[in-house]
Amino acid sequence: MATNSSSKSKVIYTLLAWTISAAIFFPILWTLLTSFKTEAEAISANPSLFMFDWTLENYRDVLERSPYFDHFWNSVVISVGSSLIGLLIAIPAAWSMAFVQSKRTKHLLMWMLSTKMLPPVGVLIPIYLLFRDFDLLDTKLGLVIVMTLINLPIMVWMLYTYFREIPNEILEASRMDGASISAEIFHVLLPIALPGIASTLLLNVILAWNEAFWTLILTAANAAPLTAFIASYSSPEGLFYAKLSAASAMAIAPILILGWFSQKQLVRGLTFGAVK
Amino acid sequence: MLNKLTKTTCTALSISAALFMAPAVNAETITIATVNNGDMITMKELSSDFEAKHPDIDLKWVTLEENILRQRVTTDVATKGGQYDVMTIGTYEVPIWGKQGWLTELDGLGPDYDEEDLLPAIRSGLSLNNKLYAAPFYGESSMVMYRKDLLEKAGLEMPTKPSWKFIRQAAKAMTDKDTGVYGICLRGKAGWGENTALITAMSNSFGARWFDENWKPQFNTQEWKDTLQYYVDVMEESGPPGASSNGFNENLALFQTGKCGIWIDATVAGAFVTNKKDSEVADKVGFAMAPDMDLGKRGNWLWAWTLAVPSSSKKADAAQKFISWATSKDYSALVAKEKGWAAVPPGTRTSLYENPKYMEAAPFAEITLASIESVDPKNPTVKPVPYVGVQFVAIPEFQGIGTAVGQQFSAALAGKMTVDQALANAQRLVERAMRKARYPK
């Protein structure tokens, strides 16, 4: 009887999970389908799910009109560059907060997180002026710096959570054996925390890839990433849904593929320490 | 041996000199920020013609959605960032930015530019003290687009200059909700460039105004009540469901698929609804002037997308050369040659409307010209006003208050509040905004 009710609830939970997944995935599927429609079909009042004249015209138009690969390369440099530099800063910061705690560590962590609650537009003018004065407008370096700073609190928090799961005794043992701080971090801590570091890196690459406020404001023609590429296909006057969908599909494809292949690490990283 | 060495040295020196000299003859690169509208895409496509004529100037393009572009260029021009050399801005920004000293006077457009050929209504909106601060790329007004077949079936005939009363009658007669055909489609989506633009232009023909001569908001007047009540009533009677979220593109889709009897919107839509590739009703569309209430003003607006040079640009000369090319008569001829006369950017030059080939190719051209010419941005409505602008008020605060008022109008259309409540809210929030901004100045 107990087994029967347990398998019943299993079926219900499975159905629920599939329903939620389908609901989340549906907008992406709809975008993909629209990208293969003509503009007239894309705005039709009675849209068809699969029964339409499939066309690659939108992809051809988008590739002809915009330098997709330039935008793609800018996105790669900005997201990977900012995540790697962020890691270099976040690892020692998280190590000190996890293993060399002071009375104010918790406050410091909360303060770091609180910077994420500030609406970005609140600091738009000072940052823009700084960028102008340091000649960083429309440069990849400028975007890497901003993305690093924006995502640093999340990186420190994530790494802090992983590091807290590692028994302090292991690090103490290495100190007893005469390991220096750098040896302790690089030879003892990092190999143990590698899955956590990998998921932090991946998550931040995704966050930086999708960031669409600073990347749109601080770039023009040279450093514009894929967010600017998508934004160039929207229009308040005219038909654009099919081309916009094609541009969106091309912009999200790389990150979807990366997410698909690294989903194990991502899930493990995001749920690490969630259940004790 | 020595001779050979001398020769080699001379060659090396020449190559080095040439390499050092190279930057001096390098092309100057200008960055152009523009919106993703069909006419701008054509400009980008044809810009190789400009580069061929000016090998010393390279072009870099930043094409963006209108609101994102506005946010970006405003930040850049206000902080003198200097990221752009040519900016695409509207008639709303030009007088405000010009007054702030953010734009360079366009005095280098060349002797062949023929500034006198620009339509007077458009030109006056882009000038300060008779000096041009932006050149019009395309201009538009608003007009009535209607289904000739449905109107005929209803036993009615559209006058060239209809009244709002006739529009209501025609919309009701054309509505057949069982077959999904709605008599009228009007913008309902909230936004200063969306429903506020339409209703403000409409209100001019009802004799309403945003402010009196002392900058006091006027939403508590009978004229505003008549305007909004008419809008809500006609849409309830003959409008499509969910109209409060319909903007230009949603109504375009409804009209092109045969779901709308009448659509009152931008004249630029004339080319879309008569395009056989996308429109199911391409050969059934008629055009008329925007309606009136017999008070001497019609409910049409005036807008132009223009090209301007920010004062922070260090390449103003090259930027003006580009603007001169993109807004010239020669450019119109180039577009006509490559894309056909119907694709020529409308609403900027008198000579275009004197061209029989254009008039034949664009069935909406006559109404477009008449609509543009009928508008006076300095006297937009029946009573005197202290501001410039037909469907907007050219003050920096308008983007904010225009959208907030549009939200009240949209809520009234959706039935979330009455017309009286919407107008009372509009009056209150505009009064507060104007008090904070310390008007009158």
From TrEMBL, chain A:
One of its GO terms (biological process) is transmembrane transport. Keywords: Cell membrane, Membrane, Transmembrane, Transmembrane helix, Transport. Residues 72-262 form the ABC transmembrane type-1 domain. Coiled coil: none annotated. It comes from Paraglaciecola mesophila KMM 241. It is found in: Cell membrane. It comes from the Bacteria. The chain crosses the membrane at residues 12-33, 72-96, 108-131, 143-163, 184-207, 213-233, 240-261. One of its GO terms (cellular component) is plasma membrane. PROSITE patterns: ABC_TM1 (PS50928). Belongs to the binding-protein-dependent transport system permease family. MalFG subfamily. The lineage of its organism: Bacteria, Pseudomonadati, Pseudomonadota, Gammaproteobacteria, Alteromonadales. Its main location: membrane. It is a multi-pass membrane protein. This is Sorbitol/mannitol transport system permease protein. The keyword ATP-binding does not apply.
Automatic annotation (TrEMBL), chain B:
SUPFAM superfamilies: Periplasmic binding protein-like II. Its main location: periplasm. It comes from Paraglaciecola mesophila KMM 241. Keywords: Signal. Residues 1-27 form the signal peptide. This is Sorbitol/mannitol transport system substrate-binding protein. Belongs to the bacterial solute-binding protein 1 family. One of its GO terms (cellular component) is periplasmic space.
